[in-house]
Design goal:
Elements (H helix, E strand, L loop, with lengths): L1 H26 L7 H24 L6 H19 L16 H4 L1 H19 L4 H23 L6
């Protein structure tokens, strides 16, 4: 009986220690999760929802007002989630985020807010022409503007 209790206590301690190690990695944005992983997933989700909108503009797929609304809503939600995952200290790890994000946080947040607002304008695009205008605005004044200032280039 004592041996079982000792084994159970040891196992519980190991599980607790593993949880603390994982949590510390997550707080630092390590591979286990955390803000870096969360914002990467959110940006992938944003791209996944932006791509069909661009496809409609290019004529690669038929314009569909209901799909435009759905993709725009998902795009806004993904951008909001990405924005929320740039806390202090999440500049360490596997990220292309420039240090300027944390040095100029108000300007960075303002650009992100602009991108979210521009994504919201896509939701109201009820014609291909309006969609094209809204997609170009988000692409140039939202995505490119932020990436130019606050994202490092891919390593070659």
């Amino acid at each position: 009986m004592k041996k079982r209790l000792a084994v159970a206590a040891f196992a519980t301690g190991m599980v607790a220690m593993a949880g603390m190690v994982m949590a510390s990695g997550m707080m630092k944005g390590g591979a286990e999760g955390g803000p870096i992983a969360e914002r990467k997933m959110a940006m992938k989700e944003a791209k996944k929802n932006f791509k069909p909108l661009v496809g409609m503009v290019k004529g690669e797929m038929a314009f569909d007002a209901a799909a435009v609304k759905a993709h725009a809503k998902a795009l806004m939600a993904a951008l909001e989630k990405a924005k929320a995952n740039f806390p202090e200290g999440s500049d360490k790890g596997e990220t292309r985020a420039k240090p300027e994000i944390w040095l100029m946080k108000d300007e960075f947040n303002a650009l992100f807010d602009k991108a979210i607002t521009l994504a919201g304008k896509i939701e109201g695009a009820d014609t291909k022409e309006k969609l094209a205008k809204a997609v170009m605005a988000l692409g140039n004044d939202g995505c490119k503007a932020c990436h130019k200032e606050y994202r490092l280039p891919k390593k070659m």
